[in-house]
Write a structure and sequence with these properties.
With about 300 residues, this protein is an alpha+beta fold. The chain folds into 2 domains: about 140 residues; about 160 residues, Histidine kinase-like ATPase, C-terminal domain (Heat Shock Protein 90, 2-Layer Sandwich). The chain is built from 7 helices and 8 strands, in the order H-H-H-E-H-E-E-H-E-E-H-H-E-E-E. The strands form 2 sheets. The chain has a 5-stranded mixed beta sheet with strand order 2-4-5-7-6, with helices on one face. Strands 1-3-8 form a 3-stranded antiparallel beta sheet. Strand 6 and strand 7 form a beta hairpin. The termini are far apart.
């Protein structure tokens, strides 16, 4: 009877091993394919970065590339560790099977460990893929400087997602709100450039105090006549003197810290010259800053379908 029980237990363990090994092999194949897609996306990002570096006015994306690479390294590292642990469990199962020392409890323990590791790998691969996908869209928009069709909310989500790495140092967060969505045919790269410059400016200047929480709010609204965007922060605000000079080329309050004084000037030119719109600044020392951007529709740079 004992022999029969042991043989039955071994047959059950062998069946479980066969089924789970086949399942794990399929999942590992899927993970390998995702890893290859991520590697290809990273190569695309490098190509996009090279194109951006050749265009001086888009130099602000250099910092974003480094930030995105840093953000991607963490989930990729966790994913690779989880895959390695899974491979080790598979080797241990195979060794137990070949030696004839396999047991139901041992097989189930290793299979449970594999499932946990695979789940961890999938979660982190997905995190990396989302970040790469968002940044890739933004980078392609900047390098091509071409109009494309997109919903306003989707466009702003991609831009905001690509900018999250730069928020780490000041300990800030971004809140996005779209009150009315609509289909745009728009120079998406120029929109991305404007929002990047404004948010970078907030990260560099608005949150000099260690006290938080530091919050940047991006809002969007579409009508048949115009697209309105606002970027506001709860930072330190500006003095009246600084606010008067904010759009001047080469004006910066952080010259010694690497500031060029061109970001806000470029932002103003894109809004006014490229889109034929307006950008208004509201700020008070100690009470944050708010930029309100109004872009008319039915121009060479923007049309809307409501």
């Amino acid at each position: 009877m004992r022999f029969e029980r042991e043989r039955a237990a071994r047959r059950e363990a062998e069946y479980l091993l066969h089924e789970k090994t086949r399942e794990i092999y399929s999942i590992n194949q899927d993970l390998s394919a995702r890893a290859e897609d991520l590697a290809a996306s990273m190569e695309s990002l490098k190509s996009a970065q090279d194109a951006l570096v050749r265009q001086g006015k888009l130099a602000a994306l250099g910092g974003l590339v480094a930030g995105v690479a840093h953000e991607i390294n963490t989930p990729l590292g966790v994913g690779m560790t989880a895959v390695s642990i899974t491979a080790e469990h598979v080797r241990e199962l195979v060794a137990m099977f070949e030696s004839g020392r396999i047991s139901r409890s041992g097989a189930l323990r290793l299979l449970a460990g594999m499932q946990d590791s695979i789940g961890l790998a999938e979660t982190n691969m997905r995190r990396a893929a989302v970040l790469v996908r968002s940044f890739k869209k933004v980078a392609v928009d900047r390098s091509q400087e071409a109009r494309r069709s997109t919903m306003l909310k989707a466009l702003l989500e991609d831009i905001v997602q690509s900018l999250t790495p730069m928020l780490r140092e000041p300990g800030a967060s971004i809140t996005l709100h779209v009150s009315s969505d609509g289909l745009l045919d728009v120079d998406a790269g120029a929109i991305g450039q404007v929002l990047t410059n404004l948010i970078q400016n907030a990260c560099s200047h608005a949150f000099m105090s260690a006290e938080g929480p530091h919050v940047i709010t991006v809002s969007g609204d579409v009508t048949e006549e115009r697209v309105e965007l606002t970027v506001s922060d709860n930072g330190c605000g500006m003095s009246e003197e600084v606010a008067k000079r904010i759009w001047e080329p080469f004006f910066t309050t952080r010259r010694g810290d690497g500031g060029s004084g061109l970001g806000m000037h470029i932002t103003h030119n894109i809004v006014v010259e490229h889109f034929g719109g307006s950008i208004d600044l509201t700020t008070h020392e100690g009470h944050g800053t708010r930029y309100t951007i109004r872009l008319p529709c039915n121009t060479d740079a923007l049309t809307a379908a409501i």
